[in-house]
Every structure is written in C-alpha cells, then in structure tokens.
Amino acid sequence: MRLRYRYRLHPDAAQREALAKAFGCARVVFNDGLRARQAASEAGLPYVSDGELSKRVITAAKKTPERSWLGEVSAVVLQQALADLNAAYRAFFASITGKRTGPKVAPPRFRSKKDNRQAIRFTRNARFSVTAGGRLRLPKIGDVVVRWSRPLPSEPSSVTVIQDAAGRYFASFVVEIADEPLPRVAAEVGIDLGLAHFAVLSDGRKIDNPRFLRRAAKKLRKAQKALSRTAKGSANRNKAAAKVAKAHAKVADARRDFAHRLSTQIIRDNQAVYVENLSVKGLARTRLARSVQDAGWSRFVGMLEYKAKRYGRTFARIDRWFPSSKRCSACGTVAESMPLSARSWTCPCGVAHDRDVNAAINILAAGRADRSNACGDPVRPPLEVAQVDEAGSHRGAA
Questions:
Q1: pTM of the predicted model, to two decimals?
Q2: Contact between residue 230 and residue 237 where contact means Cβ atoms under 8 Å apart
C-alpha cells in the first residue's frame, strides 16, 4: 500500500526565497504547456505530444532570454509540472469519452500565483535525501529543517513540498508500506453518521459532533471583517488575509486530528466496520450545507476504509437507499413514515427505539447480510425504499 506521510518544514529566509522561485518556475512551465496545447487546438493542429511539449517549454525555453531563469531550479521540478498537466489532460479526455467513471472532469486551467496552495514535487531522479542530521536536502534549495512527528516507514519514492494559504510549509512523502494486520477481535460495528451526533455506533455509543467551524465562527468572523476593511493590494490586507487563512487552517487541523483519532480507535476495536453510503455532495447543496461540510464525513469514511485495508479489517458501505432508520431492528417491520423530528419511536411489536442507535444496528445487520453465505449467495433481505426526507436519501438532491 502507498501512503503519504506529511511533516512540517521550517525553511530559513534564503530557502523560502528559493522555494518561491521554484513554485513560480513550475507554475510558468505548466501555464506555457497549457497555452501551447490550446494554441495548437485553436489552429487546428495535431495534439502536442508529451515529449514535444517538454522540448518546447523546458529545453528550448531555457535558451531564450525570456525563460533563461528556468535553469535556476531543479529540472525535475519543471518536468513534474508538465507531468501534472499531462495527467490532467488524460483525465479530461477519459472523462469526455466515458472511460473515466465518476463526475465529469473539466479541462486543465491556468495556475495563478495567487492560488492558496503552491506545490512542487521531487522524484528520486532529483536525488533528494534526508541527511544524517535529520534535515531534508532538496536540490538547489538546501537542507531544510523538518519537524519529524514520526519516523518514515520506508524509503520515499517522491516528496512534494507544499506552501498552504497560511504560509506554512510541508513535506509530503510517498512511501510504500506493508499491511500490518492487527490481532483478530470478535466485535463488529455499524456506524450511523449524523449532525446531532457525529457518529452513533451499533453498540449504543454516541460520539459528539465537535463542530469545529461553528466553535471558531466568532474568531473567523472578526478576522474576515478586519480583512474586508483593508485596501486591496496593501500590506495590511496581506497580513489580514494571512490571519484569516491561519484561523481556517487551525479548524481544518483540528477536524483532521479528530477524524484520525476516532477512525483509528474504531478500526483497532472492531473486526468489521459498516457505514451508510451517504450522498454528501447532495446534502452539501441543502440548507444543512455548512453543518455537513463542518462534519467532514467523507474524510472520516475514507480514513476508515484505508485503515481497514492496512490493518486487515473488513470495511463496507451500505446502500444509501436502505431504510436504516425506519426498519425495526427487532422484528424487521418498516414504518410507513419517519420524519426527521422523530428521534425515538416504538414499533408495533412493542420495542422502543432510539432512531440513531436503531439505524446503526440495522447498518450492522445489512453489512453482515452482504457477506456471502456458505453457498456463495448473498443473504441480505430485500431492500425497502427509504423516505425522501431521510438524511442521505435525497435522490438527485439539489
């Protein structure tokens, strides 16, 4: 399995200047390549191949007075910028021809020096290395101080140096790791994600929703108001924008840390994990958009999935149309209606249910049923149509 390990970098003034130059050169090469292909398309000329494009915007461009400064940065950085452009074109062509599943991919766009995120990538050909003193040695940049929060599990195949909107620098290493199966446990869990509680587990546990963005709203509002009062292009505006970016970065970091801790605990404690396949994009277009995006369900579920694969656990998504909230987990009866305001209900069989706990129990049962029986056939009960006002059940929600 290939994973990314990210660490904070602390470049000095000279190294920050060299990184800014590398960011700019990579951006120029990307834009020159995109411009060359667009010009060829508009003129009715054949598509410019990857090799020909590299000769034009890197090799030949370095010999011109207008682009001679491209030679001041590592050639690998420039080549990787073109590799990103080529990958973007391949994804676009695969999308319009139907070879790529998922949402449609737009054609590549020009990069701006005002983008919130700047990045360059070094591969093994660049001969980057970690020094004996624990610094990251980058060609034509120098030995950069790294805050090693954990050791690298193996030799990295590439490193991406990132500057985020808050002005922080990170090194993102791609490493190959072997699966590390955890000892088998008997417990299995179904998870119902929500807004009142971030997650409700089938064993009855309820995880509070931390609401990081809502808790930081007052500070964010104050920083944004200060930014709006500054003049465009002024030094004060740049300082105010940095404060806004740092406030948002703090929220994002807290949300990511929460998701990592919770997902690791769940994977460690359970042999199988089942979650509902929510339509997060659909819910993000409703009046609950801010709360849905603040919850960060997609990232959390993605963490559960890759950690389950790494540690030898079972992970599965349950069909979003499965009526987990309306079905009685005791007798299987499906209620005719279940408004969102009903947080508890009693089945005609006499069993009283907490809506979210009952949904989590049904998700667990549905996940187990999706497994094949001894004859190789699925044993899931037939699906019932969930009501349209149930969270995550908005077919074609807009």
A1: 0.85
A2: yes
